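Q: What residues go here?
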C-alpha cells in the first residue's frame, strides 16, 4: 500500500450514537457502564435540529447519544433506515484546513465547508464527510484550548451526574465494522484517509471441519493511521455458507454495512468484568472447551506465561491472546444492544472491553471463539 501524507488526526475523540429511547441509554451508560452524564443539548437547538442529545463520559471516552424530536432531523433520518447505531465518528485533527484540502484532493466527499464556532475567546472548526461505512459519517474537529465545549450546542454541567468510571476505561482502542464486501472500504481508507494495512486474518468452519454441511467464516483486515494510532478492524463474510455468517446477519439486522462494535480500553479487566457482571451486564458466552485448551494455546503461542489465574479467566469468560513472551491481551465482548434490551430495533452494535499487556494485535486466536459465540446467540434468537 502506498503511504500518503497524514491527515493530521490526533485521536478518535467521540462516538455519536442515534437511538429510539434516550432514557434507556441514560440508564445503561450511567448505571451499568458507570459513565458520567456531563451535558445535554440546548433546548433551542433541539427544536432547530429536531433531536435531543446527552453527552456521556468515562475517562477520555466520550459518547453523544441523540434521539429524534419529531421528524426531519439527522437522528430521525438515521432511524428510518437503521436500528439504533453509531452514525458519526469524531476525529480531532491538528490542522483542519490541511485535513479538508487533502480529503478533497483525494476524491473524498465533504458534506459541508468548514464551519467555525466561537465562544469565550476560543474557537472550534469542523466539517463532515460521507464514508463507505453505510450511513455513518466522519466528522473532523480542530479546537482551541479555550473553547469550552466538546460539542457545539451541548451545554456541559458544572458537576457531572451519575458514574465515576470505576471500571477504569481509558479510551477507544479500535472500531470494528462489517461489510458484505469490504474491499471498497479498504481502498477508501487507503486512498482518501491515508491509512495503511496493519493486520489481517481469515478463517472458516471448513478449516477444522472439511465435511461440514453448514458453517461460516470471515475475512478481516485492520487499517490504521500510523501517526495517531487510530485503528479500524473491517470484516466481510466468506463462502461457502456466506449468508450464515454473523457478518451477513449483522448487515441484515443493521439494514446495511456499518459499525459493529467499539473496543473500550481498560486498566484492569478482571475487577472490571467481575463488577460489570454484578451490575447485570451480559457478555457473549465462551464455551468451556476454550478454557480446556487454553494452557496448550498459551504454551504454543509464544506467550509462555500470564499473570492471571486461568480459573478466574474461565469464571469470568475473559479471552486471552498473544504471540510473544510476556506480551498478550485480554478481551471480552458485551452482548449486542438488541439482546441487552430485548428489542431488535436496539440494533446489533456492541462494546468490547480490552486490556493490552504489551500485545498490539487483534486477538487472532480469539476470532473463532467470538465468531461462533455471536452465531450461537443469533441462532438462539432466530436470526440465523
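A:
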Amino acid at each position: 500500500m502506498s503511504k500518503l501524507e497524514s491527515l493530521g488526526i490526533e485521536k478518535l475523540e467521540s462516538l455519536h450514537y442515534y437511538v429510539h429511547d434516550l432514557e434507556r441509554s441514560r440508564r445503561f451508560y450511567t448505571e451499568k457502564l458507570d459513565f458520567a452524564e456531563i451535558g445535554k443539548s440546548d433546548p433551542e437547538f433541539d427544536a432547530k435540529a429536531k433531536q435531543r442529545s446527552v453527552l456521556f463520559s468515562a475517562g477520555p471516552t466520550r459518547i453523544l447519544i441523540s434521539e429524534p424530536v419529531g421528524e426531519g432531523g439527522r437522528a430521525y433520518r438515521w432511524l428510518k433506515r437503521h436500528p439504533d447505531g453509531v452514525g458519526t465518528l469524531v476525529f480531532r485533527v491538528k490542522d483542519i484546513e490541511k485535513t479538508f484540502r487533502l480529503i478533497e484532493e483525494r476524491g473524498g466527499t465533504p458534506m459541508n465547508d468548514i464551519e467555525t464556532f466561537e465562544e469565550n475567546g476560543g474557537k472550534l472548526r469542523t466539517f463532515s464527510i460521507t464514508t463507505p461505512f453505510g450511513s455513518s459519517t466522519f466528522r473532523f474537529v480542530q479546537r482551541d484550548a479555550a473553547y469550552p465545549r466538546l460539542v457545539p450546542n451541548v451545554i456541559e454541567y458544572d458537576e457531572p451526574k451519575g458514574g465515576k468510571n470505576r471500571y477504569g476505561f481509558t479510551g477507544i482502542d479500535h472500531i470494528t465494522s462489517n461489510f458484505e464486501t469490504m474491499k471498497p472500504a479498504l481502498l477508501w481508507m487507503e486512498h482518501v484517509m491515508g491509512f495503511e494495512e496493519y493486520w489481517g486474518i481469515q478463517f472458516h468452519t471448513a478449516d477444522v471441519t472439511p465435511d461440514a454441511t453448514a458453517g461460516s467464516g470471515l475475512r478481516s483486515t485492520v487499517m490504521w493511521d500510523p501517526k495517531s494510532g487510530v485503528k479500524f478492524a473491517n470484516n466481510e463474510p466468506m463462502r461457502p455458507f456466506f449468508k450464515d455468517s454473523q457478518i451477513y446477519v449483522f448487515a441484515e439486522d443493521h439494514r446495511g454495512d456499518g459499525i459493529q462494535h467499539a473496543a473500550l480500553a481498560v486498566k484492569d479487566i478482571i475487577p472490571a468484568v467481575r463488577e460489570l457482571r454484578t451490575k447485570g451486564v451480559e457478555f457473549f458466552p465462551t464455551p468451556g472447551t476454550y478454557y480446556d485448551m487454553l494452557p496448550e494455546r498459551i504454551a504454543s503461542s509464544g506467550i509462555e506465561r500470564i499473570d492471571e489465574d486461568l480459573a478466574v479467566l474461565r469464571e469470568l469468560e475473559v479471552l486471552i491472546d498473544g504471540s510473544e513472551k510476556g506480551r498478550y491481551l485480554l478481551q471480552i465482548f458485551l452482548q449486542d444492544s438488541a439482546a441487552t434490551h430485548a428489542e431488535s430495533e436496539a440494533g446489533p452494535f456492541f462494546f468490547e472491553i480490552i486490556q493490552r499487556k504489551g500485545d498490539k494485535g487483534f486477538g487472532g486466536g480469539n476470532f473463532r471463539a467470538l465468531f461462533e459465540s455471536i452465531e450461537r446467540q443469533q441462532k438462539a434468537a432466530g436470526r440465523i
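A: Context that may help when evaluating the design: Residues 206 and 296 are 22 Å apart (CA to CA). The longest helix spans residues 367-380.
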